[in-house]
Amino acid sequence: MSMPTIRHVRAFTLRGAGADYHDQGAGHWIDDHIATPMAKYPEYRRSRQSFGINVLGTLVVEIEASDGTVGFAVTTGGELGCWIVENHLARFIEGQKVTDIEKIWDQMFNATLYYGRKGIVLNTISGVDLALWDLLAKVRKEPVHALLGGPVRDELQFYMTGARPDLARKQGFIGGKLPLHHGPAEGEAGLRRNLELLGQMREACGPDFWLMYDCWMSLDVEYATRLAQVAYHDFGLKWIEEALPPDDYWGYAELRRNVPRGMLVTTGEHEATRWGFRMLLEMGCCDIIQPDVGWCGGITELIRISALADAHGKLVVPHGSSVYSYHFVITRHNSPFAEFLNMSPGADQIVPMFDPQLLDEPVPVNGRMKASALDAPGFGVRLNPELPLHRPFPR
Ligand SMILES: [Mg+2]
C-alpha cells in the first residue's frame, strides 16, 4: 500500500467554550471562587478568569494528506500555538509520510528543546500529534483505538467532575469530583467551609459513592495534610487531586506519606512528557497519574508515560480531553475508568465536553460508554463548520 504524504498543516484559533474549557460565560461553575495559586491575592480569588485562565483560547491543528484526507485536533494553545506550528513545526510535518508519527514527534520535541520542554510548546506538539493520529486512522479507515491495540473492555465507565456529585450519582457515574473553593489564604474559616461542603455531598450521595477534591495546585503540604486527614476519616474522601504546584515533587512525596492509608494522592494534569512523569513515579509522589493527552505530548507520548506508570504499578486516568482520552483509555489495562468533565453551566446536564467545537462527540449514558460509540474512523469527531476559525499566521 502506498502511503499518502502530508501536503499541508494549518493552525487556527477559536474563542469560547471547547478545548479551552475555561473560556466560559458568566456564572459557570468552573469559574466560581475556585482555590488556585493566585487566590492568595484577594483581587484574583473570586474568579479564575480574573487572572487570565482563559487567555490562550483553542488551537485547532488541521493536517491535509496528498490523497485529500484531512486529520485535525483541538487543544489549548490559541495564537501562540498557531505561531509555533506555522513558523517552526511545519517543516518537520509537511512532505513526510502519514505514518511518520514517531519521527515527527522526535523532531518537534528536540527542535524546540531550547525554548520548550513543557507548557505551551508541549500543548502545541500534542495538538499536532493528535491531528497526525486522527489523519493516519482516517487514511486507514479505522478508529484510533484500533491503531493502539484495540479495546481491552466492552465499555468505559466514568466519574464526573463538576459542582454536583449528588447529580452525578443519580446519572450513573461511579464518582464525583468537586473543585476545592477555599485555599490556605482563607484560613480556618475556609478550611471549615471546604469540609462542610464535602460533608453535605457525602450526606447527599450516601456512603459508597466516590467523592474526590480537585485542588488545582492551590495548597501547601501542611494544609493539604490537614484537609486530607479530616476529609478521609469523617467523609471518606477517595482522593486529593493536584494539591500542590506541579514542580513541588518533594512536597507531593511528603503529602503522600502524610495522608491516611487508603486515601489516594493524584496529580499530573499540568505535567508533560515521560521525563516529568518519571519524576512523579520514581519519587513516589502519587497513586494515580492524570496526564492530559492534549498537553503532555499527545498520544505518542502518552503511550510511553502509560508504560512507565504500568511498570511502577500505577494507574493512568487521563485528565478530561474527551475522545482524545477515551480512545486511549479503552485500550489500556491500567486505565480502568475515565474522567467526564461536566461543562454545563450548573454541572447538571450531560453535554459534550468540547461543545460546540466538535460534532459527533459521544457522551456517557448512565455513566458509561460502549466501545462501539468510538468506532468511527480517526477520533470519530468533526470540526463544527459553523465556527469562525481564524488563521493568524497563514503561509
Ligand atoms: Mg484536576
UniProtKB/TrEMBL annotation:
Q: Which GO terms describe its molecular function?
A: L-rhamnonate dehydratase activity; magnesium ion binding
Question: Annotated site (Transition state stabilizer), which positions?
Answer: E339
| Residue stretches making up the Mandelate racemase/muconate lactonizing enzyme C-terminal domain | 165-262
Required cofactor(s):
Mg(2+)
Keywords noted in UniProt? Lyase, Magnesium, Metal-binding
Q: Where is the active site?
A: H319
Pfam families, per database record? MR_MLE_C, MR_MLE_N
Q: Could you say which residues bind Mg(2+) here?
A: D214, E241, E269
SMART domains referenced in this protein's UniProt entry, alphabetically: MR_MLE (SM00922)
What class does this enzyme belong to in the EC scheme?
lyase
Q: Where does substrate bind?
A: H22, R48, E339
Biological process terms from the Gene Ontology for this record are: amino acid catabolic process; carbohydrate catabolic process
* Reaction(s) catalysed by this chain's protein: L-rhamnonate = 2-dehydro-3-deoxy-L-rhamnonate + H2O
Residue numbers marked as site, Increases basicity of active site His:
D292
What's the Enzyme Commission number for this chain?
4.2.1.90
Q: Cofactor binding mode, per the note?
A: Binds 1 Mg(2+) ion per subunit.
Query: What other comment is given for this protein?
Result: Reaction proceeds via a syn dehydration.
What does the annotation say about its assembly with partners? Homooctamer; tetramer of dimers.
Q: What does this protein do?
A: Catalyzes the dehydration of L-rhamnonate to 2-keto-3-deoxy-L-rhamnonate (KDR).
The text of the family note is:
Belongs to the mandelate racemase/muconate lactonizing enzyme family. RhamD subfamily.
Protein name from the UniProt record: L-rhamnonate dehydratase
What are the top taxonomic ranks of the organism? Bacteria, Pseudomonadati, Pseudomonadota, Betaproteobacteria, Burkholderiales
This chain is encoded by the gene named: rhmD
